[in-house]
């Protein structure tokens, strides 16, 4: 399945804003109460601002022209109260929407992170971590900015604009139509340019993702960069990503800023039309001075929000481009869900491959029509040249991937019919490069082990003793409390493998896969691991992947994995022969 988000971007680019908006509204439905409250405050705010020009016009025509100054003072007071109320409603709206934005940011980040946890390994193979981080951090924040700062302003501006438009048309239809005519041009201009602006912003967000992927890659690999003195190479790559980001940011900036001056120009043209036409109407006795003042104010009330809308429209376009990038993750479905699987096939083995084919990306088949079986309590070895397909076979055993064709059976049933909890309880996997979390050795060996979730240090020591893991724990200076830092070199690779080993053994799985699990461990400790494995429950099946043949001396059966084939190798000597015969992966 194609999980490459950047390829999906181009496929989904044409998805309509309407559909995206519908999904976004569904997301914020939990905030309905606050949104309604904010809407009411913004409507009151707009209403107050709309009423003001009418009162000013009325004051001029009724009190100023007749020199009744007490009336002028009274209306000035009323206007002051109205402006204060407008300030209060404006503030309340900002506060409410700030909260909505932050809560949405929180919910969205959680939703994306949870979705990332559900997605299969192939998703992470096809996407760079830096780009994903940028989607979780940067894109969600763009959406938050729109919600907390722009949405209600957006609605307020539209309401003020519509209100001003209604006043303009209802007071004098001819003058009103003349005042609104430049707005038609603005609407046309916006409709024509919006898709282009959204595209420019999407490109910019993509390049921000690319930049953070680049930074992440070089920070992760700084040791190799220094060891090979390839700083210049990474500097060049970073420079290219940075340049791309700069270019797309300039492009997005140009696109985003094109609306404001055009709107400004057309708004000034509208004022001029009102002034000239209004004076003409006054000169022929069809209009009053007070009304003209109100009119000019309403024209400002119509075009100012329109100008604001131009800026807000940009923020909306950026938010929609971000939302597209976020939705791409949220809409993805794992292709490794629990399903009924193929119920027509059964098996009496602990684990069996029946006519299994597998390829990572449809281009090259890595495993070709594989049939193999692992029985309860036996030890199996997978050997073969580098790149032969051993880890891939193990990945299919633990369902990190599904077979492209054929069936993998666990406990006699299609492996796809097990829940992830059941499956991981039954199958333990020690990876070539074990991953540890920041915390103590105890945190790491109990990771994902619901059986010993609330166990005390004392109880855990006893459990470790019973599992014969004491000697391994003794290798760590501070035992269970030794600090481990994820991704750092505070402990050696061999020590990491020991922790992963203890983690896997304590889960007491029915099938334990060791993928080069002793490659970085000294011979004495390796013997210790061998003894621990021998003392594992007689029910436990072991699958050992190893390059060092001495580690598989005690295997009941040896499989030779190469060039898409898995063959029984017979004895250790036969296996050695197969390796020496130069059966290398092409
Ligand atoms: N995530 C992946 N995407 C695409 N191809 C992959 C992926 N992982 C492995 N391969 C390819 O699959 C083939 C088998 O790789 P695999 O890791 O299974 O070999 P291996 O026998 O375990 O090698 P080693 O002894 O080096 O660990 C190789 O050609 C490799 O390039």
UniProtKB/TrEMBL annotation:
Bilayer-crossing regions: 35-56, 68-88, 151-173, 179-197, 245-266, 272-298
Domain ABC transmembrane type-1: 36-317
GO cellular component, one term: plasma membrane
Keywords: ATP-binding, Cell membrane, Membrane, Nucleotide-binding, Transmembrane, Transmembrane helix, Transport
Superkingdom, natural source: Bacteria
GO molecular function: ABC-type oligopeptide transporter activity; ATP binding; ATP hydrolysis activity
Cellular compartments annotated: Cell membrane
Domain ABC transporter: 351-586
Membrane topology field: Multi-pass membrane protein
Coiled coil segments of this chain: none
SUPFAM superfamilies cross-referenced by the UniProt entry: ABC transporter transmembrane region, P-loop containing nucleoside triphosphate hydrolases
Family matches, as CDD domains: ABC_6TM_Tm288_like
Name recorded for this polypeptide: ABC transporter ATP-binding protein
Organism: Pedobacter chinensis
């Amino acid at each position: 399945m194609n999980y490459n988000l950047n390829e999906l971007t181009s496929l989904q680019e044409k998805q309509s804003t309407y559909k995206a908006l519908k999904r976004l509204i569904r997301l914020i439905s939990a905030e309905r109460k606050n949104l309604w409250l904010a809407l009411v405050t913004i409507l009151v705010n707009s209403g107050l601002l709309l009423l003001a020009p009418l009162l000013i016009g009325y004051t001029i025509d009724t009190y100023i022209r007749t020199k009744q100054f007490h009336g002028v003072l009274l209306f000035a007071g009323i206007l002051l109260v109205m402006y204060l109320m407008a300030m209060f409603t404006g503030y309340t709206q900002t506060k409410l929407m700030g909260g909505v934005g932050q809560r949405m940011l929180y919910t969205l980040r959680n939703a994306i992170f949870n979705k990332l946890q559900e997605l299969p390994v192939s998703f992470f193979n096809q996407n760079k971590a830096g780009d994903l981080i940028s989607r979780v951090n940067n894109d969600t924040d763009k959406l938050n900015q729109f919600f907390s700062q722009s949405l209600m302003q957006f609605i307020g501006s539209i309401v003020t604009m519509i209100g001003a438009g209604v006043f303009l048309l209802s007071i004098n239809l001819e003058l009103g139509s003349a005042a609104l005519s430049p707005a038609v041009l603005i609407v046309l201009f916006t409709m024509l340019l919006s898709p282009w602006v959204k595209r420019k912003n999407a490109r910019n967000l993509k390049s921000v993702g690319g930049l953070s992927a680049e930074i992440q890659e070089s920070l992760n690999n700084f040791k190799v960069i220094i060891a090979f003195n390839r700083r210049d190479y990474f500097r060049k790559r970073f420079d290219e990503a940075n340049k791309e980001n700069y270019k797309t940011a300039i492009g997005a900036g140009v696109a985003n800023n094109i609306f404001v001056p055009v709107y400004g120009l057309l708004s000034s043209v509208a004022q001029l039309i009102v002034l000239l036409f209004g004076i003409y109407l006054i000169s022929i006795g069809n209009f009053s001075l007070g009304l003209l003042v109100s009119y000019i104010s309403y024209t400002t009330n119509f075009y100012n929000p329109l100008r604001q809308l131009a800026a807000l429209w940009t923020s909306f376009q950026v938010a929609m481009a971000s939302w597209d990038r976020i939705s791409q993750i949220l809409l993805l479905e794992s292709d490794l869900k629990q399903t009924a699987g193929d119920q027509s096939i059964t098996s009496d083995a602990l684990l069996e491959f029946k006519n299994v084919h597998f390829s990572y990306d449809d281009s090259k088949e890595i495993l070709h029509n594989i049939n193999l079986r692992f029985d309860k309590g036996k030890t199996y070895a997978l050997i073969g040249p580098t790149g032969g397909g051993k880890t891939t076979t193990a990945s299919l055993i633990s369902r990190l991937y599904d077979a492209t064709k054929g069936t993998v059976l666990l406990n006699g049933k299609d492996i796809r019919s097990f829940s992830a909890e059941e499956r991981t309880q039954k199958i333990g996997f020690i990876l070539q490069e074990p991953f540890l979390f920041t915390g103590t050795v105890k945190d790491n060996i109990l990771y994902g082990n619901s059986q010993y979730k609330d166990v005390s240090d004392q109880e855990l020591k006893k459990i470790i003793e019973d599992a014969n893991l004491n000697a391994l724990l003794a290798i760590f200076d501070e035992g269970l409390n030794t600090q481990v830092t994820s991704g750092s070199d505070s402990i050696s690779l061999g020590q990491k493998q020991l922790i992963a080993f203890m983690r896997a053994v304590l889960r007491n799985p029915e099938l334990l896969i060791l993928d080069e699990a002793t490659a970085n461990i000294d011979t004495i400790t390796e013997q210790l691991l061998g003894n621990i494995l021998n003392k594992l429950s007689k029910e436990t099946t072991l699958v050992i992947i190893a390059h060092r043949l001495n580690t598989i001396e005690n295997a009941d059966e040896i499989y030779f994995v190469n060039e898409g084939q898995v063959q029984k190798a017979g004895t250790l000597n036969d296996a050695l022969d197969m390796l020496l015969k130069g059966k290398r992966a092409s």
